[in-house]
Amino acid sequence: MKENAKGHFLALFTICVWGTTFIATKVLLKAFTPIEILFMRFLMGYFILLLMNHQGLSVSNIKQELYFIGAGITGVTLYFLLENIALTYTYASNVGIIIATAPFFTAILGRIFLKEERLKTGFFIGFLTSITGIILISVHGSSAFSLNPKGDILAFLAAFVWACYSVLVKKIGSFGMSVIQSTRHIFFYGIFFMIIPVFLMGFEWGLERFRNPVYLGNMLFLGIGASALCFVTWNLAVKLLGAVRTAVYLYLSPVVTIIVSALVLEEKITVVSAIGVVLVFAGLILSDKGKGKN
Known about the structure:
By secondary structure, this protein is mainly α. The chain has one domain (2-292). The protein has helices at 2-18, 21-28, 34-52, 62-89, 92-99, 102-114, 121-139, 149-173, 179-192, 195-200, 213-241, 243-247, 253-264, 271-289; strands spanning 118-119, 291-292. A two-stranded antiparallel ribbon has the order 1-2. The chain is globular and about 45 Å long.
């Protein structure tokens, strides 16, 4: 019971932090390109994890190494690149809604490859309930929602690769390794496979930009908090709760976003978005109860 409670707390904490990263990213985009932000935050995150635990990771065989390579490619390189590129082709509201389908993909992949979660009708009802709530939150009072095939397909691919990452992390968790060491190893491969996009997408170090304390503070938040710390807490939550039960917390990300927008950006929370929040929470509860053992 204590392990369950710890897992739920870690998942909730992670989503609360990840739900606020849009503010830091929005600030940094004034001076940095998306690939610069992405590469710098994970490079920083890697060295922070190295400081936390500098011992080398002992991988038993090539099969285990392949799991780490897959997790680095999906959870670090592909997910964030696909999401960022999708945002250049379609509306942020579209991306927000589509990314929220990740728990559904995770449930399907988890059932196929991990065979640990038996899905009941409640899970699918919860999924539809939460998605309805997310749609209300994302497009309330907005006319900026329409189908944009290229961007929307990229967003679906981002949701799918995050589901792959969740399943891979659950498998890695069964190896009995330190979560900090294994997350650092995942970051290594994520950064490694990011090198080619870095050269293709016009990366510049431009460290003088960090003389601005606002840029420095936001990059530190993304590198230390959202990357190093939160990937560890998320991966530990997956280890404790399972890939599917942890993934449903992604439904809460838009909820955190509108609350932070109201507090920091002074955006108003409308009645429609408030209803959306209630539906998201209801869907989260239904989804969590709509699973069982084999």
